[in-house]
Amino acid sequence: xxxxxxxxxxxxxxNNLTSKRTDEEISVGTExxxxxxxxxxxxxxLGQTDxxxxxxxxxxxxLFHPVYSPAELHSxxxxxxxxxxxxxxIAFLFVRLLRWGFDVASGYKHKPLPPNADxxxxxxxxxxxxxxxxxxxxxxxxxxxSIAGVPGFVAATLRHLKSLRLLRRDAxxxxxxxxxxxxxxxxxxxxxxLRKPGWFFRAxxxxxxxxxxxxxxxxxLISPPTCHRFVGHLEEEAVITYTRCxxxxxxxxxPAWSNYPAPEIAKDYWRMEKNATLxxxxxxxxxxxSTHRFVNHSLANLKKDDINPxxxxxxxxxxxxxxxxxxxxxxxQYVIESQKLLKEHRAQQQK
Amino acid sequence: xxxxxxxxxxxxxxNNLTSKRTDEEISVGTExxxxxxxxxxxxxxLGQTDxxxxxxxxxxxxLFHPVYSPAELHSxxxxxxxxxxxxxxIAFLFVRLLRWGFDVASGYKHKPLPPNADxxxxxxxxxxxxxxxxxxxxxxxxxxxSIAGVPGFVAATLRHLKSLRLLRRDAxxxxxxxxxxxxxxxxxxxxxxLRKPGWFFRAxxxxxxxxxxxxxxxxxLISPPTCHRFVGHLEEEAVITYTRCxxxxxxxxxPAWSNYPAPEIAKDYWRMEKNATLxxxxxxxxxxxSTHRFVNHSLANLKKDDINPxxxxxxxxxxxxxxxxxxxxxxxQYVIESQKLLKEHRAQQQK
Lengths: 351, 351
Ligand SMILES: [Fe+2]
Ligand SMILES: [Fe+2]
Ligand SMILES: [Fe+2]
Ligand SMILES: [Fe+2]
Known about the structure:
- The structure is a homodimer of 351-residue chains.
- With 351 residues, chain A is mostly helical.
- Helix content of chain A is 58%, strand content 0%.
- Chain A is built from 13 helices and no strands.
- The termini of chain A are far apart.
- Mean pLDDT of chain A is 80; it is low at 1-15 and 19-64.
- The interface between A and B is large, with 86 and 86 residues.
- The structure holds fe (ii) ion (4 copies).
């Protein structure tokens, strides 16, 4: 960890500038500010209208801070958006390819349980290759999240550079893309605190990033909508993975995680109760993934100069959990709503 | 602009998803959310302590939203940090090289005024190469800002990727680096709204980005502190440029800008009065530059695993305008202060 290395450099072992280990009790703000530390904790209501769309603006931690209600956490569904165009098909093909690589690399198993599963012990199910153990799940999460943090940042970079070099407005995309990347990184930081992986696994992650960062960078230069579609499908897979893991924990097939306490960093990030469990964390992560699914499938339906409909607000999980994304017309409607709400909010402020 | 291109594609000329031109009256949130649109506009006081350090947390627009008091705007001084190490010297050498290239490319002139300057007309001074006209200043600003938006984003990218691939915390740097990049981009968007440059200038910007993005990416891989030092010195130059321009406007030597109204985007970004002028904007930009100067010289004094002292709060302009940066010990002291303030703030919230 950071501390040991600092020590080896001959600096006193404890220094207030040295970052903490992830499994340590969080000293507030080690990873950056949380909006709840900055602003009044009552969320602003952007005016009261007849709109049935949720109008509460969520705060953010670092960049994005999702705090979910129990209803939201449970309203996420496994979805698959059917490909319509050629670009959709290419994007999905790449996801299947990557998924296959993932499964091999992380030793993912998802055989249907045998008819006599009830009578088999967890040990027997594991030996039969029917279910994965905690270690295997974690390895999958870590691999998944270390890759998942790349696309949002790459897309944000390319839109930022484009805005600079073509002297053109960005139309609000960058922030949402960075929020996604930051959110994925926080997933990784959370799971990382459960286990320090060995050198072989680390080398694999390192290599995967080298390939994926460059491949995604080039692909995004060629076709941003295809890339967002790709991420949309990738997030569908992430929702499946976490949904299955939740099922396993709730069925008691991951006993070591049955009442495992939530990592400190996760409690701070999602503002969870003191006695939150790892299961609560995985529910929250799944909700985040369903946001990414919704946002990316929606962005893939837009033209590159369109305004980002999520620059101001996002539908809540009861929408994002049950719908693949906005079509372009829905996005436009949503932007009109947002601007109306915001205008009312400003008018109120000026009173 | 975006609208014309949209029209050419056969889409109706007006579409609510189409981004606005920069010189158009701002429809709120075209470029993203402003914290003032989200949260109560009273800044949170992070507890009341004996600390003499300013403890007001500023809001943000898009990512970073500086709102300056008149005192802050006028407390920015031209500073130069003396090189101490070899790395410092290399960084400064590169800035001088870049500055020289800049001056040539943007036709910058800064001859001392002749003794009889009082009796010469502006026309005569311009012809004699003593002063630049509005057009020349603007060209310099645009070039400067189009480059200035690169380093923060590159540094943020590399820290983000490193955190993902080494499974390690970032310690709060990313957010500050992105704020800088976003802030520079907003400078560009502001100045861009004053003039649409021609194809030759655009080609130059395009080429410069291609070279500079890659060069800075590689350099940051090699030595982050040298790169932050480089940016620190670059920002010293930016403060000089804007200070001189302010002097020119106030001396009446840029008559077309004497009472030129502030661009709409700038009024929204810095939350300025309706009747704000371009001069007010340039004061605000200069203050931003002095923040970048302070932040980068400070980060250059830290070790790469140190906590970012500006993750939670930054000293206000009366500090940042008059000091090159924090030494490592000062940064540590500042982090201790911040954590204390934050703890008190949390304790208060829980009451
Ligand atoms: Fe994730
Ligand atoms: Fe995701
Ligand atoms: Fe700037
Ligand atoms: Fe700057």
